Amino acid sequence: MRKKIVVLGAGMVGRAMAIDLSKNHDVLSVDRDQSALDMLAGRSNLSTQTGDLSDASVIQKVIAPGDVVVGAVPGFMGFETLETVLKAKKDIVDISFFPEDPFELDELAQEQGVIAVMDAGVAPGMSNLILGHHAANMKVSDFVCYVGGLPRERTWPYEYKAPFSPIDVIEEYTRTSRLVEDGQLVERVALSEPELMNFSGVGTLEAFNTDGLRSLIKTMDIPNMKEKTLRYPGHIEIMRVLRETGFFDEREVQLGSQKIRPIDLTTSLLFPKWKLGDEEEEFTIMNVLVSGNEENQKVEYKYELLDRYDPETKTSSMARTTGYTCTAVTQLVLDGHYQRKGVSPPEFVGEVPGCFSRVLDYLEQRGIRYTKTRMLT
């Protein structure tokens, strides 16, 4: 049965999700940027509307006819957007990856009787689904996730392009990284503990600590957990120099007769260089390792993903791997396969029998393939 879906945000990932969902549903895409909405023009079952999504009254109006809402706004807007949607008593699946604690809205979601799945992307997102699925079926002792989105062509000096909101990338480089070691929460400086790793089809990348565990820290009783971000070698050092010099600071500094925030200057200079071209080839790479005891055997599951830009549909890999995970979970909600009221991280979805396999099938149909290996250890 066709449903009405409202997608908030028409950035690279938001557009991909709107197009994907419009194959089976009636979709309204909302963004303040008309040029982003113009890229969706002329598609069947897909309408667009301009609107300032920082205004709660605008959100309330545009989501009123929707059966479910998909959130794809930048992280700094995500928490307030989610709160507004919950107050309107609408189910939502969200990928804004906001820094605030989503469980602060759990009571509100339950009171309103709505489903709110957050962080439903690739990592966090699919990585959580994988862990949730296995945690429900075995005693997990270790979880490690290595993940990154990178341009195919390495361009000096940064050898990086942002396949999602660049301001959210900088947040990864400044926010303290939280890991779990021997059952204890520990903190590491972002960009710390670099390690070089070789990946088939890609070559050597460097991995470093970022705050990617997010909800897993609260929801999973697992002794050892960490996530590391992947970049081309050399990127870490450049970002550390910028950070330690103060270019990412949000506190104002005096510059002549004016006060400016260094982060504002940095973003204005960096973002044009980090902008991923509309048809620029890039890829998403992720390795997830889940180890523990299963049926009295010590086992390790390894999930490997290497997905590339789709030249036929002109859809970036990050939009595909992030967006289609979100639309897969949205379909679970619409079909009644996931019904838990309140705020749910993706690991809760993965715990429900049948949900994980349905997401894998959904992604497989769209050419996104996770290779699974089971090894005795």
Which stretches of 5+ consecutive residues score pLDDT under 50? none
Q: What structural class do the secondary elements suggest?
A: alpha/beta
Given the structure, what is the number of helices?
A: 13
Described by strand count, sense and barrel closure, the largest sheet is:
7 strands, parallel
Question: What's the CATH first level of the largest domain?
Answer: Alpha Beta
Principal-axis shape: globular
The average pLDDT is: 95
Tell me the helix content.
Answer: 25-40%
Number of strands: 18
If you consult CATH, what is the topology of the largest domain?
Dihydrodipicolinate Reductase, domain 2
Please, what is the CATH homologous superfamily of the largest domain? Dihydrodipicolinate Reductase, domain 2
Radius of gyration: 20 Å
The portion of residues forming beta strands comes to: 25-35%
Q: Compute the separation of the termini in Å.
A: 46 Å
Number of domains: 2
What are the main properties of this structure?
377 residues; alpha/beta; Rossmann fold; 33% helix
Describe this structure in words.
It contains 13 helices and 18 strands. The chain folds into two domains: 4-123 and 318-369, Rossmann fold, CATH 3.40.50.720; 126-308, 2-Layer Sandwich (Dihydrodipicolinate Reductase, domain 2). Strand 1 (4-8), helix 1 (12-21) and strand 2 form a beta-alpha-beta unit. A seven-stranded parallel sheet has the order 3-2-1-4-5-6-17, sandwiched between helices. The model has no long low-confidence stretch (mean pLDDT 95). With 377 residues, it is α/β, with parallel strands linked by helices. The radius of gyration is 20 Å and the shape is globular. The protein has helices at residues 12-21, 34-38, 56-63, 75-87, 106-112, 126-135, 166-174, 216-219, 235-245, 262-274, 317-335, 346-351, 355-365, and strands at 4-8, 26-31, 46-50, 68-71, 91-94, 115-117, 139-151, 177-181, 184-188, 195-199, 203-209, 224-231, 253-255, 258-260, 282-294, 297-308, 342-344, 371-376.
